[in-house]
């Protein structure tokens, strides 16, 4: 398997509320603004040619995806249930089915993104809200190329 995978945690969302369906929890206005501003700084680092965008169907991830697609002028995205239930094997199967080398952005949630990063690269780094990580696959090995967060300075490996 060969390609690049961007793991993206959704922007800042409202607090979860007891008795309310978490599926519909939106990004806050501050979260939307911060995400838009952050993505402008990311333009030199995100390779968009032939980029597939996969998103969790939860509202906050879809809103994060919409802003991402708008910023990078990407026409469409695909909802993937494995970004809600954390099924890394399903994600890897989908990546293998793509033309190689692939380029995919996955917009999802914790604790799955941190677990995926650890399982794929051996790196144990918490994925904060509004964070993008680039993982490169070559010769069936995955390495963390870089990570950047909307609320922290650049972190390159």
TrEMBL record:
SMART domains documented for this protein: PGAM
Entry coiled-coil feature ranges: none
Gene3D superfamilies to which the protein is assigned, alphabetical: Phosphoglycerate mutase-like
Family matches, as InterPro entries: His_Pase_superF_clade-1 (IPR013078), His_PPase_superfam (IPR029033)
A Pfam family recorded for this sequence: His_Phos_1
Name of this protein: Phosphohistidine phosphatase SixA
